[in-house]
Fold this sequence. Notes:
Blueprint: E1 3-5, E2 8-10, E3 21-32, E4 35-46, E5 50-54, H1 61-67, E6 78-86, E7 89-90, H2 98-104, E8 105-108, H3 119-129, H4 135-148, H5 152-155, H6 168-180, E9 186-190, H7 198-211, E10 216-220, H8 224-230, E11 233-238, E12 241-247, H9 248-253, H10 258-264
Parallel strand pairs: 5-10, 5-11, 8-9, 9-10
Antiparallel strand pairs: 1-2, 3-4, 3-6, 6-7, 11-12
Helix pairs in contact: 3-4, 3-6, 4-6, 6-7
Amino acid sequence: MDITINKQIVPKNEKEQDFTPVFKINNLNLWYGQDHALKDIKFDIPEKQVTAIIGPSGCGKSTFIKTLNRMVEMVPIVRMSGEIVYRDKNIFNAKYGVEELRTQVGMVFQKPNPFPKSIYENVAYGPRIHGIKNKKVLDEVVEKSLRGAAIWDEVKDRLNENAYGLSGGQQQRLCIARCLAIEPDVILMDEPTSALDPISTLKVEELVQELKKDYSIVIVTHNMQQAARISDRTAFFLNGEVVEYTDTSTLFSNPSDKRTEDYITGRFG
Ligand SMILES: Nc1ncnc2c1ncn2[C@@H]1O[C@H](COP(=O)(O)OP(=O)(O)OP(=O)(O)O)[C@@H](O)[C@H]1O
């Protein structure tokens, strides 16, 4: 699309975005002690799309995703500068509580980490903490969340059994259900399929495609095929910098940076 300014036709700027950002990241820097792990990160993450973060081991993918819900600050030696704006609020602003942020920005981890409780209690836990006590309401939230995570049919007859009795893939979808139960806006996923078998991986990938209708998703993955299959936009990280960030099909078919090309063609990493 061209833009008309003073009756002149101005070609569309490549950097112009045609999406609504859920996160705006401006000049984000992060250090672990002296180690400069994130360098001048600047890009916007779209609403209701899947954004993949790719790059070789140690390039800062996990560190980056954990800045978005401020989990990275649990490491005492971390220092940061710059700005992360979530829906017009600077997440580092003292007035914006970290609990509130984490209610809106949920996270699913690499290894499924259910609580040692029943399947039902795993999902009801968050809503209970947020003050929902009514059993009927909780039942509805649990069912809706398990359905949303595409695991309801597999567990509906064993809701009171311990979650540890589920397979790894089922546990991961249960953890996604637990995340959905607090009705987040954004879901962060840090290598959510790396501990899963291929069939469970496929189920989680299909689920991500469903979830993006209602949620904005950021996913760290080692697996470039996975990024190509399921994401709309991809950021390629290298040594703590974003080398390239664009729509996924362009990044994989026509990368603009030689380092991206070398990485996606397997020359390093
Ligand atoms: N808790 C920590 N304390 C000190 N340094 C850390 C810590 N976590 C990560 N780092 C360093 O920050 C850099 C980025 O690490 P990070 O785990 O974010 O990379 P990654 O791309 O997610 O790697 P991988 O793909 O192997 O998980 C690395 O140099 C790592 O050693």
